[in-house]
Every structure is written in C-alpha cells, then in structure tokens.
Design brief:
The protein is α/β, with parallel strands linked by helices. The chain has one domain (about 5-205): Rossmann fold, CATH 3.40.50.2020. Helices cover about 30% and strands about 30% of the residues. It is built from six helices and 13 strands. The protein has helices at about 10-20, 25-45, 85-90, 135-145, 160-170, 200-205, and strands spanning about 5, 50-55, 60-65, 70-75, 95, 95-100, 110-115, 125, 130, 150-160, 175-180, 185, 190. α1 (about 10-20) packs antiparallel against α2 (about 25-45). The longest helix is centred in the first third of the chain and has 19 residues, at about 25-45. The structure holds 1-O-pyrophosphono-5-O-phosphono-alpha-D-ribofuranose and uracil. Uracil binds next to α6.
Length: about 200
Amino acid sequence: MPLHVLQHPLAHHVLTHLRDKTTKPVLFRTLSYQISLLLALEATRDLATVEKEIETPLETMQGRVLAKPLVIVPILRAGLGMLQPFHDIFPDVSVGYVGLERDHKTAVARSYYCKLPPLAGARVLVVDPMLATGGSAAQALTLVKAQGATDVGFVCIVAAPEGVATVQQAHPEVPIHAGVVDRQLNANKYILPGLGDFGDRLYGT
Ligand code: PRP
Ligand code: URA
C-alpha cells in the first residue's frame, strides 16, 4: 500500500519546531496536536459517506454524512500525543489502547497492555508518532487485525525508511501516513535527524 507523506507548508514549519531540542514540553504538545490534525485529515481523506436528507431553513436537500465509525488506537505512551485532534474533529470516535515499550538495549518492543473496542466495520487508525524499526507498529497492526479490524491505516509523525519497509512487508495492505520520512536509524535504533525520544519530550521525562 502507498506511503503518504504530508506536503503542507505548515507541516514543515511544525516539524522544524518539534525537532528543535530547545522546544519545551508545553510547546511540544501543541505542535504534536497541530501536525496530528493535518495527519488526521489526510488519513481520512477517503472515508466513505452516505446520502442523508435534511431540511435547510429554505428547502429539502440531499447531504452526505460519514458512513463508518472511526476507531483510533494510540500506541502507549507517545501515541497519546496524537489522539486529541481525532477526537475533536470526528463525531463518532472510539479509542483502543495498545501498550508497547522498546527495550533500551535491543529496541524490541514488549507488549504490556491491550484494550480494544469492537473493530469490525470501522476505519481503524493505529497512531504512534515515531516509526523507527517498525517493530512496534507491526505488532500493533497484528493485534488490531486479530481483533477483527479489516480497514486499517497507520499514522505517524516521523518515519524511518527501515520502519516503512518493515510495516510494508508485514502488512502490505495497510496505508502509512507520515509527516515526514527521515534519513536512517542510528546504532541505537533512533531516527536521524529525528527529534529524539518523543515520549520523553511530550511528558518531560
Ligand atoms: C517509541 C515510539 C514507538 C516506538 C518506535 O516508543 O513511540 O512506539 O518507540 O520504535 P520502533 O519502530 O523501533 O518499534 P517507546 O518504546 O520509547 O515507548 P514510549 O512511547 O512509552 O516512550
Ligand atoms: N522512539 C522515539 O521516540 N524516537 C526515535 O527516534 C525512535 C524511537
């Protein structure tokens, strides 16, 4: 499935401030909201709509409304920094949680929590700001598919080429929406140039 990368000038602006190591958590959270809002619009550009008849103050007309509910699945904990804009703009959203944490030495993600609502019939978007090795994203996508999700996308802010390749190999039908694709991973599996540890910068840890 295709990789979609944000092209909006505001995305470049916001990403530059997110990457800046002097940006404090309070601004970092606002910038995360802003870029996640742009990504939310892109990742839902193809959502189906159905006709709905309504009365305007002047006459009857056929409008269109969203046909499917949306389920957002943030990967804890950094994924929580992307959740709010989806809640703010979509009328029918439910939220599932997948807790994954990378081991500091091996960079392999360990699952510590999973609570998912019914997923069949919904557009399910797994959200996590950083797609590094792709191990966390691939695991989370496997979990949501095992729970019945059939219309699934993955949304991230910064992707590494290695992570994109991992997800595309493990889940070829899943579209990836990224704010940017960076150069590469370093020896510790952090993204270069990247923005550091997203969770730490979001929560000031
Ligand atoms: C970060 C990030 C992703 C993961 C990406 O989470 O938010 O979940 O690493 O790396 P990967 O593509 O190599 O799997 P981390 O494990 O640091 O946990 P946190 O969100 O609790 O900070
Ligand atoms: N997780 C992060 O938060 N940052 C990276 O660069 C890689 C994984």
